[in-house]
Sequence to fold (333 residues):
Amino acid sequence: MHDLRGKHSIISIILPFKNEEDYLGECVDSILNQTYPYWELLLVDDHSSDRSSAMAADYAQNDARIRYFLNPNQGVIEAMKHGYAQSTGSLITRMDGDDVKTPDNLEQLLSKVAPGVLAVGKVRYFRKDGLGLGYEKYEKWVNQLTETDDNFSEVYKECVIPSPAWLVYRKDFESAGCFDSDLYPEDYDLCFRFYKAGLQTKGTSGVVHLWRDHEIRTTRTSPHYADNRFMALKLHYFKEIDFDSSKSLVVWGAGKKGKQVASYWSSEGVPFSWITGNPKKIGHNIYGTVLENSLGFPLTEKHQIIITVADLDGQKDIAHQLKDSTSSVFWFC
Fold:
């Protein structure tokens, strides 16, 4: 296929894997079955101890578009870095070894990508014994953002770019720093770097990626994907991208997340007001800041508000209170 490089855009698919013998075959077959055939697949083995290494080597031997590498270092980030260093395509995406692409995945994403535009695809979870409510909720939420091409509007809630259902030009990928970061969760970190680079999103109309949930999925078992890692990443990028020192910072909510956020700003030496609607916590001094009543707190265009309230009814009440507000609002929940 590489002899057609002058006529067709080659898509480089970076696929790190480790001990995926139960799923890797279905995953790679879904790439082989793409309606858009001009791609290269870079399989990077992160030191597997099962049959997946041999499976990957066999695929590479049987199709010139597929290349197999052993990660010279350790971990998924290093594997992706190595795969990207070997890539040659003008367009970049990635894949997970336990997931499945729909046959028109690349075709749909290619129809949306453009210079300065990150193509984002709709996703669907699947699991043999049924999905939990949390997965269904996340799938619905992220797909709604993709439908409206407005993914980054809620970037501090959760990862708004469903990995690996995205496609980007190499130049734009490099402007976002490629895989050159050691921050986890690595997919959410890359999402923030796409946001920081100023890329726009354009979503597909149909589902392009099938996420497989299972008990040993990395997001379930690795400490890199613990809740505290997500909050630390959100705060890191908020301070880097959206924090405005000329405005007064307000933290809204005194639950677990609110305390994490307040603790962070206290440790950074950044002054803030801390408000809550919980009468049991109003007036308490935590981390050197006294919690104030959110009702009647004078919010203006000179405020930046970080909302950490996890309760859905509480979020609705806050949204109602802020419907006419001129403050800058960031939902961290």
